[in-house]
Specification:
43% helix; 14% strand; 3-stranded mixed beta sheet; 13 strands; 6-stranded parallel beta sheet; 11 helices; 326 residues; binds NADP nicotinamide-adenine-dinucleotide phosphate; alpha/beta
Length: 326
């Protein structure tokens, strides 16, 4: 059900890649009263500060896109920070939202909630059926707790207080606001940087880690934001028909995957790199395939709009802007 365009909507994590895309999406839909706080202005791990904030602001809806996120190295090095900060942020925001009568909240999770050996494509019912990937287990446990917080509040207070807290689990995202750090970035922003630098330096070849055969799924971040608003606005009957009270999360994927080799070739083309792509087959590949089953969401009427080539062109523009190359 859509709400009044002047309703106060809190986007937690509005400067992040996903949060900023949700802000763009809401603004494009005409929402004018967006509530935003940076990490420095409001530390969501601080229970008292979050309680004060909600008591004063009393938003109508909440998008919870704030999280402590990082790559394999960061997750391995700082597991305590990943589990503690994410649990605290979720518990504080979800509970304080409930305390001030917020009826609608959307929690953002991640595909890492699914077991390492989950059947592919991974459907929502794979949750809690096996062991998680060890490197990001603390982060994944916190994200699973976020889903269960939403479900538990719905089950206990849904009828009595009319609350309806939902969760979406995105696949790998890319696009504006991504992190293009040379060592500490995801596959698409990492490849964009490497191909761009190779083009600038006229390098004859670009070396890619692994065999290039692993299959991965990628979704443009503005599509993710559109899906987030779509799920938030879905009428309760449709949502209830497609979810279960104790398995209520919704996968958000592109619907098909691509090999790392093909991805590298497409990125090379988008950037205009003329050299060769070679593979360092001694480097590890990771899981052979990671694809989400997004049937739940597509059956409710949503589909992505931005295909990979168009999304990569937009992402490259963002890279050039971020690195002041244009
Ligand atoms: N990016 C992806 O490929 C991807 C894929 C799947 C799922 N997701 C999920 O989407 C969500 C957002 O990810 P993202 O990529 O947008 O992350 P991001 O770019 O790192 O943004 C995270 C945001 O959280 C805020 N934040 C972190 N700790 C905080 C704290 N203690 N108090 C207040 N704010 C805090 C940051 O605020 P400041 O900017 O003020 O520091 C930042 O705006 C996460 O749950 C993530 O798991 C992302």
């Amino acid at each position: 059900m859509s709400i009044d365009k002047s309703s106060k909507i809190y986007v937690a994590g509005h400067r992040g890649m996903v949060g900023s895309a949700i802000v763009r999406q809401l603004q494009a839909k005409g929402f004018k009263n967006l509530l935003m706080r940076t990490h420095a202005e409001l530390d969501l791990t601080n229970q008292l500060a979050v309680a004060d904030f909600f008591q004063v602001e009393k938003p109508a809806q909440v998008y919870l896109a704030a999280a402590k996120v990082g790559g394999i190295h960061a997750n391995n090095t700082y597991p305590a920070e990943f589990i503690y900060q994410n649990l605290m942020m979720e518990a504080n925001v979800i509970h304080q939202a409930f305390e001030v009568g917020v009826k609608k909240l959307l929690f953002l999770g991640s595909s890492c909630i699914y077991p390492k050996m989950a059947q592919q494509p991974m459907a929502e019912n794979a949750l809690l059926t096996g062991k998680l990937e060890a490197t990001n287990e603390p982060y994944a446990i916190a994200k699973i707790a976020g889903i269960k917080l939403c479900e538990s509040y719905n089950r206990q207070y849904g009828q009595s207080h009319g609350i309806d807290y939902r969760s979406v689990m995105p696949t790998n995202l890319y696009g504006p606001g991504d992190n293009y750090h040379p060592e500490n970035s995801h596959v698409i922003p990492g490849l964009i940087r490497r191909f761009h630098e190779a083009k600038e330096q006229n390098s004859p070849e670009v070396m890619i880690w692994g065999t290039g055969t692993p299959m991965r799924e990628f979704l443009y971040v503005d599509d993710m934001a559109a899906a987030s608003v779509f799920v938030m606005e879905l009428d309760k009957l449709t949502y209830d028909q497609h979810t279960d009270p104790m398995q209520s999360h919704i996968n958000v994927g592109f619907g098909s995957d691509i090999s790392i080799k093909e991805l590298a070739e497409v990125i090379g083309k988008v950037i205009g790199y003329q050299g060769k792509i070679i593979f360092d087959t001694k480097k590890p590949d990771g899981a052979p395939r990671k694809l989400m089953n997004s049937n739940r969401l597509t059956k409710m009427g949503w589909k992505p709009r931005v295909d990979l080539v168009d999304g990569l062109k937009l992402a490259y523009q963002d890279f050039l802007k971020q690195t002041n190359s244009i």
